[in-house]
Amino acid sequence: MTNPALESALPTQVNFTQKEWAAFGIAHLHCDEYIMSKINDVVHYFQPAASKCDQWAYKSEASEEYKQMTLRTFQMASQWLSGRRISARRTPLSESSELERKSSICIRVKQIRTDPTTSSLHEVARLMESLHGLIDEIQRQHSPELRSFAVNEVNLTGYTDEHNMLQAMITLKKRQGVEIGLDQITGLTLAFFMGNSTLSTDLGHEYKWCPASNRIVVTSCGVTQITKATS
């Protein structure tokens, strides 16, 4: 990039206020841009320091599409918004939620032990894929003749609290043409997997799955409530 005013200022200053950037006529800078400036007749090249967003994108394991979408969002945001975090606190869905009313079974889980491998938000798709696969495998064990669950028939809604601990609700939607009791068997078995607290030396210890870390054979969660439909 070229900007005579910025080139003249760089030999003596590298940090600028928003007002000074506006005086240079520069609204946005990208980390791959650079500018040339002479200091004592020696040519120097300057690049913007990586922002927190750019640092996040470099370290993140999210898909390239997701990272670029996030970066574009913050680049288009006003300066005061991009430099601040919005303070928010979320609460669980109420017990009479619409998802629960339309489900054959509803399982509420809560993370009860810290786990450094807790899944990040951008891994929700992978988490749902694992959950869907586990539910289908459970169903095949007791009712192999039933069709697999459709994507919209399995739902996980959750959040992490101020201590980064997961609280979630998993529902299996009522399915037309499938006996509701059979889906409830699937749901109850899933609940056992998530709340299975048996020791590694006990029988059945391998039947575990953790919605917080998306790992099999281990769980850091407990089941806090199960509700099932009567019809």
Describe this structure in words.
- By secondary structure, this protein is an alpha+beta fold.
- The chain has two domains: 4-82, no CATH class; 98-228.
- Helix content is 33%, strand content 20%.
- The chain has eight helices and eight strands; from the N terminus they run H-H-E-E-H-H-H-H-E-H-E-E-H-E-E-E.
- The chain has helices spanning 4-9, 18-24, 52-59, 64-76, 79-82, 98-101, 124-142, 180-195, and strands at residues 35-39, 42-46, 103-111, 154-160, 166-173, 209-210, 215-216, 221-228.
- The protein has a four-stranded antiparallel sheet with strand order 4-5-3-8. Strands 1-2 form a two-stranded antiparallel ribbon.
- A hairpin with a 4-residue loop joins strand 6 and strand 7 (215-216).
- Helix 7 packs across helix 8 (180-195).
- The N and C termini lie far apart (68 Å).
- The mean pLDDT is 81.
SSE blueprint and pairings:
Blueprint: H1 4-9, H2 18-24, E1 35-39, E2 42-46, H3 52-59, H4 64-76, H5 79-82, H6 98-101, E3 103-111, H7 124-142, E4 154-160, E5 166-173, H8 180-195, E6 209-210, E7 215-216, E8 221-228
Antiparallel strand pairs: 1-2, 3-5, 3-8, 4-5, 6-7
